[in-house]
Each structure stands twice: as structure tokens, then as C-alpha cells.
Amino acid sequence: MAADLVATVPRSDRFAAPLALGFGTAVAMWCAWFLTHLPGLHLPPAAVAVVLLIAWVAAAGVLSRVWGGGVKTGAMGGVVAALVNLLALGSLLVEQADPATYAGGQPPIRPNAALAAGGFVALGAAVGAAGGAIRSVLRRPGQGLREGESWLGRLALVAAVAVVPLILIGGAVTSTESGMAVTGWPDTFGANMFLYPISLMSEPRVYFEHTHRLFGAMVGLCFLAFTALAVVTPSGKGVRFWVVLTFAMVCVQGLLGGLRVTENNAHLGIVHGVLAQVVLALAICVAAWLTPLYRTAVVEADAGDRRRKALATGVLHATLMQLVLGAAFRHLRRVDSPGAMHALWTHIAFALVVVGLAFAAGFLLRSRPGTDRVSRLLRRLGTGLVVVVGVQFALGWVAFWAVLTTPRRGPVPTSDQLPHAEPVPLAEALAGTLHQANGAALLALAALAVVWTRKARRAGRGNTDAKAG
Predict the structure, then answer these.
(1) Are residues 160 and 284 in contact, defined by beta-carbon separation less than 8 angstroms?
(2) What domain range is 180 assigned to?
(3) Within a domain: residue 144?
(4) How far is 155 from 201, CA to CA, in rounded Å?
């Protein structure tokens, strides 16, 4: 990492502002869309439409209220949100097929699809403009970009948040044995993945795998926009390097996900699962580097910062190793590999190392003196590490119990085997997904702890040098 990761960023950007508002709104809507279409809910289309509209208005209003931007920027952000949402809306713009008779291929597009899409984009502009108008009316004196803050930094935050539901759904795909439920890639059963009918997603495994692909496309598009802006914005060579690297990893991640399906290779699944959480950690670090606090913070020096940085780095590395072992067990157990149980027992034993390091780092961070904002943040990060690693340890034993009490199962069923596949044990799937998701939270906290302890160490050393001079 460069010693000086960031440079001065313009206070406003006519491209970054609508992109941050638009993608932020889209992420909220996609989460609402995923939850309202879960197999087994059977919500009426009218109820789903109402929920999505409420989510759209609420997300646009809250982001405009908190971040600002005005009517024009809000309208542009609404258009961005609508265009991104078309990736999911495409499932309704085609003729709905009967699951009993569908044999693959692309169903025809509805005659009024272009009109519906255009109206949807117009609605997005109206909702976004309304959010901007509300913000203009309720604006408080002095509200706007703070010193050192930028719309690029806000877009970085949105990109990092967008990875969270993708990881959650990816964990559910592995836990519910859905990884091979959809034939083909990047197509879906021979259809354009963005134009695959919603009527064909009633099978739970197909739903999880297909929506995971859609969320992956949305995240990739978000990182593409963010990376393009970061490259042309004076954000510092260090930040640009990590942004480009993260985007490259997102692209590789998408390719690995596709090859996992086309090759039916469990080892690719391991790399795919691990890399997803590394992307999350990197995205969160980039978002932290672009915050006004990182740019402008004055940190009180403390002699214990060297140990805090060393322990935080140890937690990060140990958590990455633990992540690899957990992913190896989750994927290899379905191909009857002898390495699966070895990975499991090593994962259990190494959990003691992770817990010990996380508790040590957490309590040491909590003891960080100082009244400045970075010191307070480090104390909160310490509390977060202690709580999350404790929850993770408990979830690990719950997941282990679920594995021990569940009968041994065969390989992950392919799409042609779904009609006769055994139902997924709900308890094991839920425990595994929660354990994987909380592990991602632990990795993210460890990455943030490294970022901010490095910041405190450098700032404190600079303060010492200044006093000595």
C-alpha cells in the first residue's frame, strides 16, 4: 500500500452523484425483489408491485435526504436505478412459459415490452426527482458534502454494500445445493439470463442459482461504473490501483462462477467462494480510504498502536485461512473427497486460533485511548470484532451439529436431476448460510481494523516526529 493512498477529490461530480444515488436505490430494490419472490411465498403480483414501489420511493427519498443532489441529480439517479432494475425486470418482459412444458430456449419478448421498459425508466426519473425535491424542501443549513467528502467515495460505499447480498445469496446457493441447478452460462437454459421468465423460477434451487447470477451482473455493472470514474478522478495512485485490482477480481469472480457450472468443478467452487469474500474486504477498504475521516483525521499518538496493527493483521490473515478451510469442506463434501473431513477438522481446530487472535485484537482496540474520531472508531471496531467472532464461534458449533445429524448426501444435483433430488435439510442450509455470512462480516471487520490501525500508526508517528522537531 502506498504511504499516501488518497489525494484531493473534487467536491462534486456530475457523473458520480447520479450513479451513487441510482445504484444505491437499485441495491435496495433488488433486495426487496429477491425477498418478495422467494419460492413458497406466492405473493400476488399486485402486492409485489406495491412493495417494490415503496422500496423504490423510500430508498430514493432516504438517499436524497442524507446525501443531497437536488431535483436534477435525483432524476438522473432515478434513471440509473431504472436501467439497472431492467436487468431483473426482464423476467417479466417475455412471454411466461409453463414449467411443465418448457424445454429450454428463449421465450418470445412481449409485444409491449419496449413501451413497458420506457415507462419504467420514466417512472424512475419521476421517483428520483421527487426524492430530490423532498431533499430540497427539508434541507438543513450547511447540509451537503463535508470537507474531504466526494460522490466517488459514496459510490465506493454503494459498491461495497452491493457485494453483501451477493455473498448471502451465494452462501445460500452452496447451502441449498443449487450450484448446478441451471444449465448453461452465461445463458440460462438457452435463454438470455436477463430475459428468463419469472414463471420458471418456482423451483427453489433454480431460483437461488439464477438470482445469484443476476446479482452478480448487477454488482459487476456497479464496479464497472465506479472503476471508470475512479480512474479518471484524482483519487490518488494508491486508491486507483486497489480499485482496478478489485474490479479485475470481480471479473475473474464472474468467470469462475460460470466455469464452476460448465465444468461442474468443486475446486473452482472453492476459489469462487473465497474470492467473493476477498472482494468484499477490498471493496470495504477502498470505501474507507475515500471517506472524509481518512483524509482529514488528526489522531492522537499512542504507543500501543504498533501492537494493535500487528494483531489486526494477524486476525485478517487467520480469518482468510479459516475461510479457505471452510469453503473447502463445503464444496468437497459433495464430491466425496477424502480432503473434505480433513478440511473440516482443521477448520475446527484453527477456529481456536482465530477466536484467540480476534479477542486479543478486539480488547486491545477497545483500550485505545483518545478523544479523536479515529480512536472512537477503533474502539467500536474492537467491540465489533469481539461480538462477531463470538457469534461466529457459536454458529460454527451449530453448523457442525447440523452436519453430524444430517444423513450423508450425494453430489450436488444437476438440472436434469432436480425432479428427483432429495429436499435440502433446512436446518443445515440455514446454519451453513448464517455461518458463512457472519464469517464474511468478521473478515470485513478485520480488514477495516487493519486500515484504521495503519492510519493511527502513521498519524501517531507523524505527530511524534512533529513534536520532536
Answers:
(1) yes
(2) 149-292
(3) no
(4) 31
